[in-house]
Amino acid sequence: MDQNLIAVIVGFVEGVTEFLPVSSTGHMIIVGHMLGFDGPAADIFDVFVQLGAILSVIFIYKERFARFFTKEGWQADKGLSVWHVAVGIVPVMGVAFFAYKYIKEYLFSPFTVAIGLVLGALLMMYAEYKTKDNQAELLDDLDKISLKQAALVGAFQLLSLWPGFSRSGSTLAGGLLVGLKRETAANYTFLIAVPLMFVACLYDLLKNISILTVDDLQMLAIGFVVAFVVAYWSVLWFLKFLHKYSLTSFAYYRIILAVAALTYFYF
């Protein structure tokens, strides 16, 4: 298949799935295997398309990120602060650093992704079930999230280290369970995704940069731009979706995808 077409397909998949609770990593692994696009070259391409998705969120939340560089942005009692972001990402960054090799070696396969998809779906369905009768009591103001709630959401994010579980899926479900409305949990999830993904991408990039050639630049640029544009609209659509609907439909989709992936690769 033409490399530029692969760039468009993978960039589109990354843009659609990165911030939805469906596991972008799981989709990228499955699609990569289907396209025969894997190995070190695919790894570094995945990094570039993820950077495109990250940039879209920075663009959407530019006022929020700008505030983090002000004095108030460092004061935990004056709204969402740098400290709220830090407690949400430091635990998963620490564990990921030490577990990186194991995860890459043993958990990046269609089978393990399918397991993660199903387990993540069950967690999302459980969170919706537990909070269905007290939606009015859930926190709907991003600037009133406590440090404890932020830390607990960050703890749920540890589940996303299993490919297929989904970072946004685990944090959205965790957000509901610790008392946040879906939209509030989603906004917090997207904000903490940026520094977390940036560090992860930078780490991957430094490990694989030596294999990058001039011939790869066009493909990387195409994937980056496609991921940026698609992720931008995907995030805006998802926030509107959560205003009216639950996560259950995404849970059903994950289970269907897991069954389809297992059937395609193993039967």
TrEMBL record:
Keywords: Antibiotic resistance, Cell membrane, Cell shape, Cell wall biogenesis/degradation, Hydrolase, Membrane, Peptidoglycan synthesis, Transmembrane, Transmembrane helix. Signal peptide: none annotated. The chain crosses the membrane at residues 44-61, 82-100, 106-126, 185-205, 217-239, 245-266. Its EC number is 3.6.1.27. It catalyses: di-trans,octa-cis-undecaprenyl diphosphate + H2O = di-trans,octa-cis-undecaprenyl phosphate + phosphate + H(+). One of its GO terms (molecular function) is undecaprenyl-diphosphatase activity. The keyword Zinc does not apply. It is found in: Cell membrane. Belongs to the UppP family. Bacitracin is thought to be involved in the inhibition of peptidoglycan synthesis by sequestering undecaprenyl diphosphate, thereby reducing the pool of lipid carrier available. This is Undecaprenyl-diphosphatase. It comes from Phascolarctobacterium faecium.
